[in-house]
What we know:
Keywords: Ion channel, Ion transport, Membrane, Transmembrane, Transmembrane helix, Transport. This protein is mainly alpha-helical. It has helices at about 25-45, 60-70, 80-120; strands at about 1-5, 10, 50-55, 80.
Amino acid sequence: xxxxxxxxxxxxxxxxxxxxxxxxxxxxxxxxxxxxxxxxxxxxxxxxxxxxxxxxxxxxxxxxxxxxxxxxxxxxxxxxxxxxxxxxxxxxxxxxxxxxxxxxxxxxxxxxxxxxxxxxxxxxx
Length: 125
């Protein structure tokens, strides 16, 4: 920790997380990602029938999105066409990079809070 002349601590920032808002939270962001991809898959299938096997309803699209996010891959709904495969590839890449970064930010915030709490418990400031 770097201490300024005022005696306050200044948090160190991890370079690859610089620019990520402090309010980023997987609890808020992950559902938005799921809804975005579910709507995208539903619209792809509705506008180009046959892109997905087994995807007929919004619930199917939501199910496929969550299964892809969790990397389960049951196989009852799967990408059959090129647009569906491209969309799924984008989601997988997005999930790995962005959702992983969001969890990294959340864990860094949790560690900061725990350190701040333990510092107060010891009587240190």
